[in-house]
Each structure stands twice: as C-alpha cells, then as structure tokens.
Automatic annotation (TrEMBL):
Species per Swiss-Prot/TrEMBL record: Cicer arietinum
Molecular-function GO terms, alphabetical: UDP-glucosyltransferase activity
UniProt entry tagged with the keyword RNA-binding: no
Name of the encoding gene: UGT78K4
Protein name (Swiss-Prot/TrEMBL): Glycosyltransferase
Keyword Transferase attached: yes
Keyword tags: Glycosyltransferase, Transferase
Domain of life: Eukaryota
Lineage: Eukaryota, Viridiplantae, Streptophyta, Embryophyta, Tracheophyta
PANTHER family associated with the record: ANTHOCYANIDIN 3-O-GLUCOSYLTRANSFERASE 7-LIKE ISOFORM X1, GLYCOSYLTRANSFERASE
Amino acid sequence: MSNSNENKKHIAVFPFPFSSHLLPLLTLTINLAHESPNSHFSFISTQKTNQTLFSKTNIPKNIKHYNVSDGIPKGDELLPGSEVTFYLQTGPENFQNGIDLAVAESKKPITCIIADAFVTPTFDVAKTLNVPWIPVWIPMSCSLSVHFHGDIIRAHCSVNDVNRTLDFLPGLSVLRVEDLPHDILMTGTEKENVLTRALDSLSKILPEAKTVVVSFFEELDLPLFVEDIRTKLKSMLYVPLFNLKPKTTPQNEIDESGCISFLEVQKAKSLQVVYVSFGTTVVEPPEHEIVALAEALEEYGFPFIWSLKENLRNLLPNGFVERTSTRGKVLGWVPQSRILGHGSIGAFVSQGGCNSMLEGISNGVPMIFRPYFADQGINARLAVDVWEVGVIIEGRVFSKNGLLKSLDLILVQQEGKRFRENALKMKKILEEANGPKGRATHDFKKLVELVSSS
C-alpha cells in the first residue's frame, strides 16, 4: 500500500480530547502510520491528553505529538462541560499554532488534515493551507442525518413530542424524538453553545470534505440513511475504530481485578452474570438511580460485576457491598473486553455508548440500555427496534422495579432467549463485516490511498 510519494506526506491529526472520542483518533492514526510507514503524522492535542496517551501506548516512530492550548483560563473553577467550550473557543489560530510547531520540527509542510468532526475550526485551517480536510465521525453514523436535517426536525417536532417518530427523514422512521441528542431541538439563545454551534455547522462544511470517515459498519447501517447521506457528501468511508476482536489472554497474565476468576466460578455453577458499566460517559447517574440499581441487583440474586467510578461508591446503600460480596464485585476499573467475551455474561447494563454497545453485540450479549445524552438514545433504539438484542429501561430511568423487570425478561423469560439468539446473529455479521472481505477493509485501503496521494 505504500506510495513512492509518501516521503513527502505530512498529515496533521486533531482529536476531540474528551470522553470516548480521543482513543479512536489515535487508533486511526496508528493504523495509518503502519500502512504508510514513510508518511509523517503529527498528532496535535492538549498537553494533558498527549501526556496520557503517549506515555502508555506503543507509538510508531512516524507519529509525533504536539501540544496546543486547552484554552482554560488559569485559576478559573471549571464547571461541568466547560473544558469543551474553552477548547473549541481557541479557534483556528490555536490549531494553526500546533501545525506551525509540527512543520518547524519536521521541515515538511502539511499535506492533509484529519480531524474529529467535532473540531470544526480545523476546516478553516485546511482551507487556509489549501489541503484536503478529512473529518472523522465517531458517534453512531445515522446521527449525522439528524444534524443535517436539524431545521426540518425543529419544524416538525418539539421537546414534548417524545413519542413522535422521525418518519419524515430518509431511513430514520425507527427513531423517536426522545432518542435525539438534546441540542437538536434547541432554538434561539439556547443554541448559544460553542459545541452546539459547531455541530449545527456540519451540514454546511462536511459536504466540502475530501471524504467523511464514519466509525461504523455499512453492513449494520440503515440502507435508506446511507443512500440519503451519500447524496450530501463527496465521499463517505466506513472505517470502524472499535477494538472488537476478542483479547487473547496469556495463561500467566495476572487477573488484577479478580473478575476473570470470579466469572470462572460462576461458569462452573452454570450461573449467568449481570455486567453493569456506564463507560466513559461524562454524565454521571444521579444518586437515586445508583440506589435503585443497587437495590435491584441485591434483590434479584444473580451474580454481578459493576464497574462504578470511585467517586460514586459513596452513593451506594449502606452495607450493599458487604451484603452482596459473595456474589458481586463493585470495582472502579474492570477489563471490559475480557468480561464481555466470557461465556458467563448473561446481560450487559449500559448507557448505550456506541463502543460499549458494539462490544456487547460482538460478544453475543443481550443488553439493557439507560441512555443519558448525545447519540446514546439513537444507539439504544437501533439495538432494541432494529437489531432486537435488548431493551430500553422502563421510563428511560433506573428504578428498582424497572430494572428487575428488564433483568427477568432477559435472563429468565423466553424473550431473553430470542435476544441472545439475535445477538449471536449480529456477532456473526460483525465478524464478517470486520473481516478481509468486509466494507471496512476496502474503505480503509481507500483512506490510505487518499492520505498517501493528497
């Protein structure tokens, strides 16, 4: 795949350094660097994220990282989510500074910019430099259509039309208003948010991109959506940036969390384990939902593993951890891919993040969703009504009775067997989609060619 012109290529990569967006861009950069060993990649982000990523990851030699300002005023007390605002407000000048650093050190001009689509100021930088701009869409692919058709949605729907379906949008009739990211229905002064304005601009700037990389599988996508969105873009490539391949574990690898040995004990007893995790979501569950979840797990009696941030453990009911210690584990960090790949997991309780959802499906595990924000409602709706691999929690809020009902449905009732069968079918589709004959392999090769020839 290498190209004789590669030694002239210098690609600047701009991640969105928040939540679950960061690692996919680094994964893409590493994969491209391996396939284009003579090209130079400059990964431009904040000092904090670069220190975290590049101190732990095995990085190819043709990737260098450079720091830009996070925009946070010194001494300011940060409000939740304000880091995003400060970062995006730094604008094109800040990102151009990162490019200037990279060019000065490498002595090679930038030939292409790859950026998380949320970092919209990079579009202006690419125009100024007259180089191709390749945005990467990390959320669920069909949520792109929601941003393209925002005005139409606002004309047809209000925040109170929770059960109204989007049957007026190509391929999205399965979605409801309650599934949408909250910013889509914002109007007037409510939209005076830097990220909201950035997402609102996507319908204008994405059509000018060299190609739009979507981190998903065409084989799973909604055909009418794909047909519609392709008419709006110059090009769209499916390059999933999820690690869905089962992790092979050396026999001598230490099980630091104790999760695998715990699962082996449950497997020997032929017991199904409930796995609970809210991923890297920036929206933390409220106290009453944490309590309700704990009460349901305690009453139901099935063994469980709960990945719960340390700062939330004090919200658990008094004595919960001690009373459930023989059949449950509550930990701040767990090896999720290994847990979901273990045959004893009977249900996965999740917020519905795209990565977590696909990781569950790729292991054939039925799911219970409690979506909080962003594309999580869309993801959950697709999993429940299109792929039929789980349920959305009753009322979309954790309650003791609601979770008990969902657990019973999946782990005991006949319906749960159907969910597992569908999840296993989806697992097979994902394996083929992620294989050498899948669209992803074809599109990644095309992306390498684009980057190498720009």
